[in-house]
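Pipeline run #58 for the internal structure catalog. This entry was flagged by the ingest filter as a single-chain record with no existing model, so it goes straight to prediction. Upstream metadata was stripped on purpose; only the residue string is passed forward. Reviewer on rotation: M.T. Logging verbosity set to normal.
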Amino acid sequence: FEYCNAKYTLLGMLIEKLSGETLNWFLTVNVFQPCGMKSTYVDEHGIKKSKRAVGYYLFGDEYNSSVYIGGAASVVSTVEDLYKWDQTLYHQKLVSSQTFKELYTPGIHQRESKVYGKVHNGFGWFISGEESNRIEQHDGGFAGFRAYIERQVSKHNTIIYLSNVRHGLKDSIRAGIVHILDNEPYTIPKLSGANRIMLKAKEVGMKQAIIDYQTKDSSKYYFNENECNSLGYYLLRNNRIEDAILLLKLNTEHFPTSANVFDSMGEACLKAGDKENALTSYKRALSLNPGLSS
């Protein structure tokens, strides 16, 4: 097994085909109701809930498209309901003991994580640690939303957070909560440097906003490669090409060994008509990652 979003969408389609029901009906009857999850449903096209949170880009614009993509990222829930689901998993009520065992059997594929160590794929979970300190976790993001759940099985600790802002704070929020659970000193996560630059640029322009960040503000904020890249594409989509190039250049300076940031820089230069610098950036990206497909 290897994780793939599209395969979970296919799995949702198979559930509907075999059951003859919608995914929302099937999960409601077989999962949500048995767990007592009264505020949880699948965000199908025909379902409109006025109480559902509005999603936002990190940079303030509403990003509130429907989250329905079948089995991959379509469940709308609350922290309280997800905790009920977590507690039900300890009692193996939803599926047979054999199926439950398969859910948490690590696959042959593994990757190394700075946060979790060796991480294996289960069915729907990323699994790390030994029996005494086993962690089962999964995170995700879609539209203007972020979600994370972690089960520290031997301790019966559970970390759940849901956000209607698409940010890159998962690891720092998680680290703070883990330290709190272990009665250790913790650090409040910093705010987004990319977001700070974006807000400041509205007042003084992108060039000066970047200068101010580098000379005055950088120690107060975190700077995330993916967030900065996302902001660069956001600016490109809004035809703010010069601003996008300035920001993506900053990203290459912060992450000089990332093929992705140079690939994005090449795309921005190409959109600006600067073929020479576009070619230079693309060559740098390929030298860092010869297998880069984009």
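catalog note: The chain has a mean pLDDT of 89.
catalog note: The first helix runs from residue 5 to 19.
status: ready for reviewer M.T.
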